[in-house]
Specification:
4-stranded antiparallel β-sheet, 3-stranded antiparallel β-sheet, 68% helix, Flotillin-like, Band_7, cell membrane, membrane
Length: 480
């Protein structure tokens, strides 16, 4: 039979050819297989949970949870199909299961918080409850799609939240009264500040007007004095400087007059004191004027001399700077040349070192190959001689001329002495003049007759014995 699930449904199939449980949207059900259809749409669960804070104050927590199976996780769907799907999602069993988990975790979280923390930190309290409940529901393949904790409610006979709300209302009302009083105070103070600023600004404008009039009058006087001073400068430079000092004195006098008028506007009572002070300043300026007249004669010459000395000093400084720049440029060029030469030398040494390293490397590789070849050669010889090391040693000494070298060294050692020399000869009969097969056999017999004395001499000088297959040395009795 072919079964098809709805948009918000799943099929849970068990039986033959299925190890555990198979979830599908559509499936052909064969004999000895069982199919159960279950709904995966979420359900709203509304509760009024009784909890108690850490101070042992009871309260009621109205909450609404939207819970259903986790549809995007096959493992969670499998758990839901095994543990919960056989019951109706609105059945008392499922409701008691969800309520038990939510009540247990909510009471656990509430018991670790004070009533003040729960009331003011509702968002944090909700998040903690949500996280703890979700951990437990994961064991049943359930997922919290939404959770909403309503306003906390007092348990009959315990009006904590009511009193806390009244306290908050009174605090808000008192704060509002304080804000109104502060606003009124700022308004009164602001009005007084504006009145004071108006009076100050009016007085300031009046004073500035009088100062401006006095300043204009002083500027006119200053212009007259300036014209007179320029005329005097054409006549004589010294007299011009004196007139300039007089002009400065006139300007200062005008400024004092302005200051006196400003002081009269600001405070009428300080006029007499200000006049006395101005009079004292006038006397001081008179003394300064007399002093300036005496110094004016030498001032111009000193200025000209100073300008000439400054120009000469600047010229000398410029010449020294150019010379220093030339020396610096020459030193820089020499340093660059030395650096280039050092780089070239270093590169040449580096290449020579690399070439020497390559040659050493190739020489080592050649020695390694030679050693391998010699080892192979010696190994083959030893194998052909059936592992006889003495025979191998004798063969190598004969092949490489070791006996010849030994004889040469012995000859060099006894050169100039009178050693005992044994001479062997295999010549018998007529020697070379004889021919035929008899002559050849005589030569071979001569070689064999020479071999024993030769081997005896080698044994006396080196202590080495000939191989058994070659010959044996005569005994001591034969020697005697």
């Amino acid at each position: 039979m072919f079964r098809v699930a709805g948009p918000s449904e799943y099929l849970a199939i068990t039986g033959v050819f299925i190890d555990d449980v198979e979830l599908a949207k559509k499936k052909l059900i064969i004999p000895f297989q069982k199919c159960v259809r279950f709904d995966i749409s979420p359900v709203n669960y509304e509760f009024n949970l009784n909890a108690m804070s850490i101070e042992k104050l009871p309260f009621v927590l109205p909450a609404v949870f939207t819970i259903g199976p986790r549809i995007n996780d096959n493992e969670s769907l499998m758990l839901y199909a095994k543990l919960v799907a056989r019951h109706e999602k609105n059945s008392r069993h499922v409701r008691d299961l969800v309520l038990g988990v939510i009540e247990g975790e909510t009471r656990t979280v509430a018991a670790s918080m004070t009533m003040e923390q729960i009331f003011k930190g509702t968002k944090q309290f909700k998040e903690q409850v949500f996280d703890q409940v979700q951990l437990e529901l994961n064991l049943f393949g359930l997922f919290i799609y939404n959770s909403n904790i309503k306003q906390l409610v007092d348990v009959p006979g315990h009006e904590y939240f009511s009193y806390l709300g009244q306290k908050t209302q009174m605090e808000v009302a008192n704060q509002a009264k304080v804000d109104v009083a502060e606003a009124k105070m700022k308004g009164v103070i602001g009005a007084k500040e504006r009145e004071g600023l108006t009076i100050q600004n009016a007085a300031k404008v009046d004073a500035e007007s009088k100062i401006m009039a006095t300043k204009r009058q002083g500027e006119g006087n200053k212009e007259d004095i300036r014209v007179k001073t320029e005329v005097q400068m054409f006549k004589n430079q010294k007299d011009a400087e004196v007139e300039q000092s007089n002009a400065e004195w006139s300007k200062k006098k005008a400024m004092w007059s302005q200051s006196a008028k400003m002081a009269e506007v600001e405070a009428q009572k300080a006029v007499s004191i200000r006049e006395a002070a101005l009079q004292m300043e006038v006397e001081k300026q008179n003394a300064l004027t007399m002093t300036e007249k005496l110094r004016a004669q030498d001032l111009s010459k000193a200025n000209i001399k100073y300008d000439i000395q400054v120009q000469e000093t600047n010229a000398q400084l410029y010449a020294k700077q150019k010379a220093a720049e030339a020396v610096l440029f020459e030193v820089q060029k020499k340093a660059e040349a030395q650096k280039a030469s050092a780089d070239a030398d270093m590169y040449a040494r580096q290449r020579a070192a690399e070439a020497e390293l390559f040659a050493k490397k190739k020489e080592a590789e050649g020695m390694i190959e030679l050693a391998k070849a010699q080892g192979f050669y010696v190994g083959n010889l030893l194998k052909e001689l059936d592992g006889n090391y003495n025979a191998l040693r004798d063969y190598l000494m004969i092949d490489r001329g070791a006996f010849k070298d030994i004889a040469k060294l012995n000859a060099d050692a006894v050169r100039g002495l009178q050693p005992k020399i044994n001479i062997w000869t295999g010549a018998t009969g007529n020697g070379v003049g004889e021919g035929g097969s008899g002559g050849a056999m005589k030569e071979i017999a001569g070689v064999y007759s020479m071999l024993p004395p030769l081997l005896q001499t080698v044994n006396d000088q080196t202590g080495m014995l000939p191989p058994p297959w070659l010959a044996t040395l005569p005994s001591d009795a034969n020697k005697n």
